[in-house]
Automatic annotation (TrEMBL):
Coiled coil: none annotated. Residues 33-52 bind DNA. Keywords: DNA-binding, Plasmid. It comes from the Bacteria. InterPro entries: Homeodomain-like_sf, HTH-type_TetR-like_transc_reg, HTH_TetR, Rv0078-like_C. This is TetR/AcrR family transcriptional regulator. The keyword DNA-binding applies. Gene3D superfamilies: Tetracycline Repressor, domain 2. Residues 10-70 form the HTH tetR-type domain.
Length: 196
């Protein structure tokens, strides 16, 4: 059965992203060779440029994919913790813990901001922010959280989790920093609770 042009393009995109995830995780953005990466994918540099524009465009696609994976992992952890407030806290703690994953650490938390700029402007982070805002609004309507601006609360919760994860990722001893970061994240978030 013959593949359509769009199926072939999608397959090539997938091959490039898979090879790039490996290269960026092992070597970092700056040292990842596009020639080696495209050879690993069995494609040409032209395929890279056609699908992503340039190395930065490919990197953005990789970050978006990993960020999506991270969101799913955090959601599963939140669902396992229960619902409402417990789920929201568990998702934040899980996000921070993912800073121990070498791929997440190198690509999303260390190279990501350096290459792509402010993470709060990334499309994947924006969708996480909107989900957090919805959770905050729900918790406020239930009287669980103080009636503050939902956008501000969501940005502060998301920002605290992201910055804690970045601290863990950049630390010389991430395993010892992780519990400190998670404890402080929880203490900060609990300041939003309506009753203590």
């Amino acid at each position: 059965m013959r593949r359509t042009r769009s199926e072939s393009m999608e397959e090539n995109r997938g091959k490039l992203i898979t090879a790039a995830r490996k290269a960026f995780a092992e070597k970092g953005f700056a040292d990842a060779s596009m020639d080696a990466l495209t050879a690993e994918a069995g494609l040409t540099r032209g395929a890279l440029y056609h699908n992503f524009g340039d190395k930065r465009g490919l990197f953005a696609a990789v970050v978006n994919q990993i960020d999506g994976d991270m969101a799913q992992r955090a959601k599963r952890r939140g669902a396992a913790a229960g619902e409402g407030w417990d789920a929201l806290l568990a998702e934040g703690a899980a996000y921070i813990e993912m800073a121990l994953d070498p791929e997440v650490q190198r690509i999303v938390l260390l190279d990501g901001p350096a290459v792509l700029g402010d993470p709060s402007l990334w499309p994947s982070q924006n969708s996480c922010l909107q989900a957090t805002r919805q959770a905050v609004e729900d918790l406020m309507s239930q009287g669980v959280l103080k009636p503050v601006d939902a956008e501000a609360a969501a940005r502060l919760i998301s920002g605290a989790a992201l910055n804690a994860a970045m601290w863990v990722a950049a630390s010389a001893e991430p395993e010892s920093v992780l519990p400190k970061a998670q404890e402080a994240f929880q203490a900060l978030a609990e300041g939003l609770l309506a009753t203590r």
